Description:
Blueprint: E1 2-11, E2 14-24, E3 29-33, H1 40-48, E4 55-60, E5 64-65, H2 71-78, E6 81-84, H3 96-107, H4 112-125, H5 141-153, E7 159-163, H6 171-187, E8 191-195, H7 199-205, E9 208-213, E10 216-221, H8 232-238, H9 242-252
Parallel strand pairs: 3-8, 3-9, 6-7, 7-8
Antiparallel strand pairs: 1-2, 1-4, 4-5, 9-10
Helix pairs in contact: 3-4, 3-5, 4-5, 5-6, 6-7
Amino acid sequence: MIEVKNVFKSFGERVILQDISATFMPGKTNLIIGASGSGKTVLMKSIVGLMEIDRGQILYDGVLDFHSITHSERTRLRQQIGMLFQNSALFDSLTVEQNVMFPLNMFTKMSWKEKQARVQFCLERVELPLAGKRLPNELSGGMKKRVGIARAIVLNPKYLFCDEPNSGLDPKTSLVIDKLIKEITVEYNITTIVNTHDMNSVMEIGDYIIFLYKGVKAWEGNNKDIVFSKTQELNDFIFASEFLKEFKESRMRGEI
């Protein structure tokens, strides 16, 4: 579990986050949504410790305040965190196997055979059992994202952060990535936080959603009640397309 309590963040005179509070539970896909400039990326970077907050608390499992603990405590905590980056962030000169093994080389004292076994397990989990010897430039965009997920879970993390995981993917591949993130979250009881503007992801895997508008948490809920929101800014955001407008009208009429 990760708790964000009354978090403020500014850059100079520009206020980015204003009194943000939220609770992200394990075994759930927790989504942060909002338009560009809403503060969602700054919030995720603050939660994971890539940015320092001005005020507030970010608690891991109700005990560790990320922005108050020592450097060594931060290092230990980061070993429990997996990251899936927007562009996958694979090392072009390393094979898939070497990319996935990279965190094991950095943070563990496992033997070579143990590391190989763990890497192969993770590649099989993301349905890429034969991709280990390939280079990133031999992979499709969706395959790169799956390798990124394998690397993110190789240390068996308690917390998983996904930054725009469907960026650049076609709708069919996006569904595959959403399904995989959801399955892994439930299977390993991970506290997963996804930063996204993909409304398909919101409707498919949004167990808990916070909507940021100009740095303020304007709404929170789940994918079942988001279409009934009376928050105008949220409605403007999610029903920007004619398809979603028709979806909401049909749901309100009880047709779906």
